[in-house]
Amino acid sequence: MLGSELVIRALARRGVTTIFSLSGNQIMPLYDACIDANIRIVHVRHEAAAVFMADAWSQITGEIGVAMLTAAPGIANGIAPLYSASQAESPILLLSGDSPVSEDGMGAFQELDQVAMTSPLTKWSKRVTDARTLVSAVDTAISAAMADRRGPVHLALPFDLMTRESGVDVLPDRIPDVAPVVPASAAVESISQLLGQARRPLILVGPSLCRGAGKASLRVASQTLSAPIVSMESPRGLRDPSLGAIAEVVAESDLIVLLGKRLDFTTGFGRENVFGKAARIVVIDADVDMIRRAERLLGDRLAARCFADVSVALNALKSAARQPACDRGAWMERVAAASLERGIPAPATTPSIHPRVLCETVDTFLREVPSPVLVCDGGEFGQWAQAYCSAPARIINGMSGAIGGGICYAIAAKIARPESTVVLLMGDGTAGFHLSEFDTAVREQAAVVAVVGNDLRWNAEHVIQQRTYGEDRLIGCSLSATARYDAAVAGLGGFGTLVERLDEMAPALKAAVDSQQPACINVQMEGHPAPIFARNQVGASAH
């Protein structure tokens, strides 16, 4: 069996049905092998798009997402979204073509130390140099991506290993299991006791528990433990507009449990002005480095730590739950109310479109369509979308703060869930990164609905410059007043329409869905800073 056939059959054996890719010389043998394995290749227009799509696939399905890129410049183009996937804790496998092993050190075409490039961004990265180990390498990579704190992995595949006989004719029957890290019973008992004694406990969870089965388990856990649970996946941290005024109640909590949530800038590094001087803090994490960081930053305020897979630890805490020492009903209600806080005045009715009203109109639409999936991407407009739009399934641009992947996220979500109505809200700055992927959407019949909030500028940077340097020091933030993103999408074979008045918005959404084509609604709107709902200055933010 050829090395390329071995890799693709190993993927199929692990349940892989779809690969996101841009073609290139060194991965042509793998493309050929996908035909006989009946694996679908979603062929994109830029390598970064393939990685963004693999990220979204994993977030929506809970399965491994697979991207395949060619050597050197190909994999280099995929580095930025690899960072985003790492921060989002998305299990993806990045396969890359590579120069031949037989030409190592000879100046081969596109020779590059890919492992050195991807190692800082992945849980595991390896270049295979022996074709007989290809299956075990694929298995190890996927297991590493899916275990404990999930994240991306990378496998570099030299061209000569792909094109010659591997010496392996039959794949092993057994797929190796990787047991999750189980919490120590003493740690579970200690944390359970702290939770039982607390008057105002609060559990903060990281991105991997914010979606799919993890999201559902949190609702049950909150009731069982009589403790509010806050999901955090935005670089704006506790000042994420979708969390309302949650920063205020965090400061009031007497026990904070970081369940797979990194202690970092999004939590103000655990400083006393964020968590509260009297708060006791618990860290549960499968990454020993995160526990050590907490020990270093928190000192005596760290009441307990637990090294474990967070899902396993959460189940253990539910089993060990005890009756709280006091009634926490009022506290639970206070936290819930804070998360729903949207305490800014509604904008006055004007001929122009305010981003809040635009997002509220889209939110009404999302409540009316079957199986909605919401994708939010962008600087300031992305935050308005997160604040005023919701859906059972949501993808945002994540902890990395990188923008531009939204179109790719939406396409992959629609491919993963063809029965869903996938709606993307993005700024006009964001739209420019991967607008050409509407060609991919047309070819793949991924009828997404993209709403471009067009304020004619890079608004996040505009806000920073205006606030820091003054109105007369604005530079490099303006975008074209004549750009027709809708017309560009129509030119690529999709549906496009321009909206200049609010009363045009609802009909435009209906027309976009009825077109059964990938659609772009270009909305001329006012530019406003992202909303902040906290009534004090407590909290952390990337801006």
Question: Keywords for this structure?
Answer:
543 residues, alpha/beta, Rossmann fold, 6-stranded parallel sheet, 17 strands, globular, disordered C terminus, flavin adenine dinucleotide binding, thiamine pyrophosphate, acetolactate synthase activity, Acetolactate synthase large subunit IlvG
Secondary structure elements and pairings:
Layout: H1 3-13, E1 18-21, H2 28-37, E2 40-43, H3 47-61, E3 65-69, H4 73-77, H5 79-88, E4 92-98, H6 114-118, E5 124-127, H7 134-146, E6 153-158, H8 159-163, H9 185-197, E7 201-205, H10 212-225, E8 229-231, H11 246-252, E9 255-259, H12 272-275, E10 280-285, H13 288-298, E11 302-307, H14 310-319, H15 329-339, H16 355-368, E12 372-377, H17 380-388, E13 393-396, H18 406-416, E14 421-427, H19 428-431, H20 437-443, E15 449-454, H21 459-469, H22 485-491, E16 495-499, H23 505-515, E17 519-524
Parallel strand pairs: 1-2, 1-3, 3-4, 4-6, 5-6, 7-8, 7-9, 9-10, 10-11, 12-13, 12-14, 14-15, 15-17, 16-17
Helix pairs in contact: 1-2, 1-7, 3-5, 3-18, 10-14, 11-15, 16-17
InterPro entries: DHS-like_NAD/FAD-binding_dom (IPR029035), THDP-binding (IPR029061), Thiamin_PyroP_enz_cen_dom (IPR012000), Thiamin_PyroP_enz_TPP-bd_dom (IPR012001), TPP_enz (IPR045229), TPP_enzyme_TPP-bd (IPR011766)
Domain Thiamine pyrophosphate enzyme TPP-binding: 377-523
GO biological process, one term: isoleucine biosynthetic process
